[in-house]
Amino acid sequence: QINKRLTKVSEYLNHNKLADIGSDHAYLPIYAIQNGFINKAIAGEVVKGPFLAAQHNTKIYGMTDIIEVKLGDGLEVIDDTIDVITICGMGGPLIAQIIDEGQHKLSHYPDLVLQANIHALPIRQVLQKIGYQIYDEQLIKDKKHIYEIIVAKKGEMQLDETEMKFGPILLKSKTDLFKEKWQRELESLNKIIKQLENHNDHERYHEINQQILHIKGVLK
Ligand code: SAM
């Protein structure tokens, strides 16, 4: 059994071949195969320890012929037989960087299921830039932390500043979890601005204040 966060991610899988980038223990591809969501997978890892853990688990589950564990940086481990890519459990800036640096590997436009621990904005920016459209978005709470899932497919989109920050689909429903996430963000920005009141950094004060007003406007 895998955690709630990865279980939610796997609900978006209905494909032939997955590449799970930053797979760590390969829990996601193993679970997705066990449940028939995919038929084959590549588990990519850039760090030796997690790579060995993924190899070990693939052996234990008798899946060495259907999950290929590869040591490599980001999307360099994929080829054009892959029809969906998952990148999970990282910050938004790192996920965006992996996509940006590997965009030449995406010329066949596999679907993307991306799960950010924090700060998803740069992910939406890079998706728009390289010709992907956001198809679904979801927030999930697991052990108090609120995670964001972004699902993207080939397509054009033009997001405005608010959609980039809050998510075009999440903005439409503004669920209780959405409000909780941004309320928390507001509280931490309020703390920062209190500290800034005693300093002379007017530029930073203004910037934080703009962020606060933006969030308040959306939560209204
Ligand atoms: N995806 C799993 C999950 O969601 O539970 C593991 C998340 S773990 C916090 C992040 C993993 O990504 C680490 O094992 C790390 O080595 C790997 N990683 C970080 N940057 C990477 C990159 N550029 N290419 C491949 N793997 C990377």
What amount of the residues lies in strands? 15-25%
Helices and strands, in order, run as HEHEHEEHEHEEHHHH
CATH class of the largest domain: Alpha Beta
How many DSSP helices? 9
Largest sheet: 7 strands, mixed
Per CATH, the superfamily of the largest domain is Vaccinia Virus protein VP39
In CATH terms, what is the fold-level topology of the largest domain? Rossmann fold
The number of distinct β-strands equals 7
- Supply the CATH architecture of the largest domain: 3-Layer(aba) Sandwich
Shape: elongated
Q: What is the CA-based Rg, rounded?
A: 19 Å
> Which segments are poorly predicted (pLDDT under 50) over 5 or more consecutive residues?
none
Class based on secondary structure composition and strand pairing = alpha/beta
Integer count of domains: 2
Terminal CA distance reads 39 Å
Say which molecules are bound, naming each kind only once. S-adenosylmethionine
Secondary structure: helix percent: 40-55%
Instruction: For the largest sheet, list the strands in their spatial order.
Output: 3-2-1-4-5-7-6
Mean pLDDT: 97
Structural notes for this entry:
With 220 residues, this protein is of the alpha/beta class. It folds into two domains: 4-159, Vaccinia Virus protein VP39 (Rossmann fold, 3-Layer(aba) Sandwich), CATH 3.40.50; 178-219. The chain has helices at 4-10, 27-34, 48-60, 92-101, 121-130, 161-166, 168-173, 176-196, 202-219, and strands spanning 17-21, 40-45, 67-71, 84-90, 111-116, 132-142, 145-154. A seven-stranded mixed beta sheet has the order 3-2-1-4-5-7-6, sandwiched between helices. Strand 6 and strand 7 (145-154) form a beta hairpin. Helix 4 (92-101) packs parallel to helix 5 and helix 8 packs antiparallel against helix 9.
